[in-house]
TrEMBL record:
<keyword id="KW-0520">NAD</keyword>
<dbReference type="InterPro" id="IPR000157">
    <property type="entry name" value="TIR_dom"/>
</dbReference>
<dbReference type="Pfam" id="PF01582">
    <property type="entry name" value="TIR"/>
</dbReference>
<feature type="domain" description="TIR">
    <location>
        <begin position="17"/>
        <end position="161"/>
    </location>
</feature>
<dbReference type="GO" id="GO:0007165">
    <property type="term" value="P:signal transduction"/>
</dbReference>
<protein>
    <recommendedName>
        <fullName>TIR domain-containing protein</fullName>
    </recommendedName>
</protein>
<dbReference type="InterPro" id="IPR035897">
    <property type="entry name" value="Toll_tir_struct_dom_sf"/>
</dbReference>
Amino acid sequence: MVNDGVVNSTSPAGVRLRWDVFLSFRGEDTRHGITQSLYSCLVENGIRVFRDDDRLDRGDQIAPSLLEAIEDSAASIVILSRDYASSHWCLEELARICELKRLILPVFYEVDPSHVRKQRGPFEKAFCSHENRFGIDKVKIWRNAMETVGGIAGWVFTENR
């Protein structure tokens, strides 16, 4: 919960977090479309938004600066697109976002929320691939986070084609 920028949930009383919103998204899918539009709109309305502007180096660990930004944000907007789950970086972000138990606002971008919740459709193959690379225990954490976010009422957005 935010009241004049002060978080009343999992942060110590009276502590102002650096960011109002952390944007979680799969860059290849949405960076120059919906993510850019949403970011611009939020910033124009005075919302302090963290958006990863730098392409992450490929590796096995999420950048510590991203985890710090998640922890220093009052809420997260998660833009779930078809290839979101193919990125272990996105899934690490999502797991940390869920751990913090702060406000999560999901945007289901050209995906069915039930596919997110049940890891079906475009998500099924990604999770199977991750199990081979990262192991069942790690992927179980990611699956639980995806199920949690898929169960939150959000916005379903489909581009007119």
